[in-house]
Design goal:
Radius of gyration: 25 Å
Distance between the termini: 64 Å
Helix content: under 10%
Shape: elongated
């Protein structure tokens, strides 16, 4: 175990790493570590080793291995919980409350319908709790609370099914009182290959008031408010996490300490249905691997800095799909850059210290508000970005207050025409802007065809659209392309391949010639 004692620098650092394989007790994973951003600087990125990541967070893969002979076995039963191993060191049973007060490995099995597991260990202690077929409930508060420790590890035994359910109303409503079914004041790691169901009936599901690492496990969280919440950082390394939340789905929310409040997904799968934001960080949100599906949200991904370097991200949002906002904004002189700035153009909206950076992976957005939205700048240098944006002219598929710089990857952003943002003048990869005379109905293939008659791209709409911005390495700056609607496509939605047989010629467009919209009802010529 290694405590998080390193002071993070003022500059933000997104760390790309590959975790070494763990022992048989741990889940093998490939991971990226990240340190947070400050509120006044933008993100930089560098590759580091697994050892460096373990120095910069509390996580240590060695903590996921132990000598089984040292385990303390605890059998839970209403009115009859007891220590069943030869050693009872560090465990006290008082009615239906089991208190663990020393470092060590504790294997829990059985059930408490109205009980309490409390970890009250020393500030330097690592407490490892194996859940091996546990069902815990509590009628007055949280059934599982880590009051003190250096690190708590909740390990889900292979093949086991475990459940935590809290009260609908907590007796203790104090400022520092627990407010989640699984609540920790110390660094918290969840690991193992078993399953865990967490029912947060009063407020949150899983909360760490320090760092939170989700190393493995099959975890389902259903919470009245936030689903999974870490403070300094929240990291998903591996496992399958399903979150249903009335508030935010998964978040890191430290908004006071410099370099904290960051969130990373580097592996595993995360599915979120949220009443508010899907995945959120105060500082930096990074996806470098794994699968993230925000199936329902107000805003899908939100942070001051958002970085997609790998993985597969799918977002559905009632408002903005990907939104770089919040934190502290440092306005810059002037506003939107000509030919690819903010939706109002002409310096009317200042760009702040917010960024969206896509350099790899896939990002698919379905939004009723802005699709990919940055209150500062945005860059796309790799990967694939598909936006099924808004149908109203008050929002845009792309909305960038500073400049949108496209230097690689593939971008297809469809939606309304009134707020359409296009790649800026600093872009080194060309593209085309299509603004239709009449709306194109959902399910219609749109084909971009070069001068030789080859179909360069086929995009199938999921909504009625009035505009499409497309950029890829297949587009040559200054060349003329013919646009067709109809014909056939090899997929029902998104970027695919297709044929223009039977399609309707909609006219031509020249690569690299963009007309920036000037607000609702604005925009350039239509065809």
């Amino acid at each position: 175990m290694r405590s998080f004692r390193t002071s993070l620098s003022v500059a933000a650092v997104a760390l790309a790493i590959s975790l070494a394989g763990c022992s048989t007790a741990a889940t093998n994973s490939t991971s990226t570590g990240i340190t947070g951003t400050s509120t006044t600087t933008t993100t930089t990125q560098q590759a580091v080793t697994a050892a460096t990541v373990e120095e910069d967070t509390h996580y240590d893969s060695d903590d996921l291995t132990w000598d089984a002979a040292t385990e303390v076995a605890i059998s839970l039963a209403d009115g009859g919980s007891k220590v069943t191993s030869s050693s009872s060191t560090g465990v006290a049973v008082d009615g239906n409350t089991v208190t663990i007060s020393a470092a060590g490995t504790y294997r829990l099995s059985g059930s408490l319908s109205d009980g309490h597991i409390v970890v009250a260990a020393g500030e330097e202690d690592t407490v490892r709790i194996i859940l091996d077929g546990v069902e815990l409930g509590n009628s007055a508060g949280s059934p599982f609370v880590v009051q003190s420790a250096d690190e708590a590890i909740v390990y889900l035994e292979d093949g086991s099914t475990n459940t935590l359910t809290d009260a609908t109303t907590y007796a203790d409503q104090g400022e520092d009182a627990p407010n989640a079914a699984l609540y920790s004041m110390a660094d918290l790691t969840i690991a193992g290959t078993g399953s865990l169901t967490v029912n947060g009936q009063s407020n949150d599901g899983i909360v760490s008031k320090d760092g939170l690492v989700l190393a493995a496990g099959k975890v389902t969280v259903d919470a009245v408010d936030d689903g999974i919440r870490g403070k300094d950082y929240t990291v998903l390394l591996d496992g399958a996490y399903q979150v249903t939340a009335g508030g935010d789905g998964v978040k890191a929310d430290n908004d006071t300490d410099e370099g904290r409040g960051w969130l990373l997904v580097s592996g595993g799968s995360l599915t979120v249905n949220a009443g508010d934001d899907g995945v959120k960080a105060f500082n930096t949100l990074t996806v470098s691997g794994g699968t993230v599906t925000v199936a329902e949200s107000e805003e899908g991904l939100e942070a001051q800095h958002i970085s997609i370097t790998g993985g597969d991200v799918t977002v559905t949002a009632n408002d903005d799909g990907v939104n770089a906002s919040g934190g502290s904004s440092t306005s810059t002189d002037g506003g939107a850059a000509a030919g690819g700035g903010g939706p109002m153009g002409g310096g009317e909206m200042a760009a702040g210290d917010y960024t969206v950076d896509v350099s790899g992976g896939t990002l698919t957005i379905n939004s009723e508000g802005d699709g990919l939205d940055s209150n500062g700048s945005a860059t796309i240098s790799g990967g694939t970005v598909v936006v099924n944006g808004p149908t109203n002219d008050g929002n845009g598929a792309l909305d960038v207050n500073g400049e949108l710089v496209v230097s690689g990857g593939t971008v297809a952003a469809a939606g309304s025409a009134g707020m359409a943002v296009t790649p800026g003048t600093s872009s080194t990869q060309s593209g085309v802007q299509l603004t239709f005379n009449s709306s194109v109905s959902a399910g219609t293939p749109v084909h971009i065809v070069d001068s030789s008659g080859a179909v360069v791209a086929t995009f199938v709409t999921t909504k009625t659209i009035a505009s499409l911005v497309y950029s890829s390495s297949a587009i040559t700056d200054g060349e003329t392309y013919t646009v067709y609607t109809g014909g056939s496509a090899d997929a029902k939605a998104g970027l695919t391949t297709g044929s223009i047989d039977g399609a309707e010629d909609q006219g031509t467009v020249t690569a690299g010639q963009y007309t920036q919209a000037q607000g609702p009802g604005g925009g350039g010529g239509r065809w």
